[in-house]
Amino acid sequence: MDSLDVAEDWQQVLDQVAILNARGHEISVDEVAALTLKRGLQEILDNRTDGTFYTVAWDSDGNLVVYDIYRDPAATLHPKGASLTQDFKDNAAGVWDYFNDQARALVGR
After folding, report:
1. Pairing of the two strands 55-58 and 73-77
2. Beta strands in the chain (DSSP E)
3. Which pLDDT does position 108 carry in this prediction?
4. If we measure between CA atoms, which residue out of 108, 98, 103 comes closest to residue 46?
5. How far apart are CA 35 and CA 6, in angstroms?
6. Average pLDDT over residues 63-86
7. pLDDT tens figures, 5-17
8. In what order do the strands lie in the sheet with 64-67?
9. Of 29, 22, 33, 74, which Cα lies nearest the Cα of 53?
10. Backbone region of residue 62 per phi and psi (left: phi > 0; alpha: psi in -120 to 50; beta: other values)
11. 3-state secondary structure 51-63
12. What is the pLDDT of residues 19-50, one digit of tens each?
């Protein structure tokens, strides 16, 4: 999975699942979507801070939590609908905009 780019939209998630399954990796659409969202937010934060000063992880409620360098929670990104994965499926550009807005608010640039 790490060799694939972050999917920009739901179709790319489906394409990545097909590629990975064809290569013998058993992975579901939900798993690829979750990895895409986590990696995408991490890349946005890394680009805004010119390095890795924040770490992104899923919590047990299906939110993405941003941790600072001390491993303290710095922000929590909640879904607008039923889940972030469903939000991404319904409106990928809107999710990336939301992530960028939240990163800007957190980082200040």
Report:
1. unpaired
2. 55-58, 64-67, 73-77
3. 84
4. 103
5. 8
6. 97
7. 899 999 999 999 9
8. 55-58, 64-67, 73-77
9. 74
10. left
11. CCCCEEEECCCCC
12. 999 999 999 999 999 999 999 999 999 999 99
Long-range contacts of 82-88 (CB under 8 A, 24+ apart): 84/37, 85/30, 85/33, 85/34, 85/37, 88/10, 88/13, 88/33, 88/36, 88/37
* Identity at 62, one-letter amino acid code: G
Tokens of 94: 């809107």
Say if CB 76 and CB 88 are below 8 A apart.
no
Question: Helix crossing, 29-49 with 10-22: angle to 10°?
Answer: 120
Rounded to a whole number of angstroms, the distance between the first and last alpha carbons of the chain is 30
Residue 48 contacts residue 66 (beta carbons within 8 Å): no
